[in-house]
Amino acid sequence: MYSAFMQYKEVLVTGGTGLLGRYVCLSLIGHGFLPRLLAAPGSEGRIAPDVRERCRVTPGELTVRESVEMGAQGTSAIVHLAEVWKEPPRRGITFEEANVHAAANVLHAASVWGIRRLIFVGVAGAYPGDPDPYLDARGRAEALVRGSDRAWTVFRPAAWYDLRDDTPRVSVEYLEDLAGAIADSVRRQDTVGRVYENTATDRFPWKELPRGR
């Protein structure tokens, strides 16, 4: 479906307020795209200043289908970064809702607005049925994407947080490499239907990775 915003090559980014999100947004901008961040109400303050001045922000929750539809309207592609790697009991956030249900909502919005291009960032080693609830949820979310009729590309980087204290275990260089690969793949047809996985945490060797199914 056409929108006047498409002339700006606007790309919906979920998880744009997170650690990787900043680098992905900056890389998208460098590739000539205009990021539109779907940000939970109250999280706008976490958007880096160098991103905020060059993007659009739509308040919304990934677990609410209507919010995702509104955020995706008029965009030409979706980069789905958002995830939850632990369940905060007091906030009532579950792996099922924040990972699997959220991915289903993204796919629904893409279908509603005719958005073909979808980049999904999962995690290395995740698969449906994994005994670890987080990896199971991430695997099932990825399976939804790979089973869809969208023009998808999947990235499966190493998990970069220590779940004990939320400490990132990767360098700025790693995040820049990964973000560059994600932004580069948005406009590359040769990455459609491909999965890129690497378990290293020192760099993301984009040009060296085999393009396997």
Largest sheet: 7 strands, parallel
Rg calc: 16 Å
Number of domains: 1
Rough outline? globular
CATH architecture, by name, is 3-Layer(aba) Sandwich
Question: Which class in CATH terms?
Answer: Alpha Beta
CATH superfamily: NAD(P)-binding Rossmann-like Domain
Structural class: alpha/beta
Q: What is the H-and-E element order?
A: EHEHEHEHEHEEEHE
CATH topology: Rossmann fold
On the 0-100 scale, what is the average pLDDT? Answer: 87
Helix count, per DSSP?
A: 6
Account of the 3D structure:
There is one protein chain. The chain is α/β, with parallel strands linked by helices and about 210 residues long. The chain has one domain: Rossmann fold. It contains six helices and nine strands. Strand 2, helix 2 (about 50) and strand 3 form a beta-alpha-beta unit. Helix 3 (about 65-70) packs across helix 4 (about 95-110) and helix 4 packs parallel to helix 5 (about 135-145). The chain is globular and about 35 Å long.
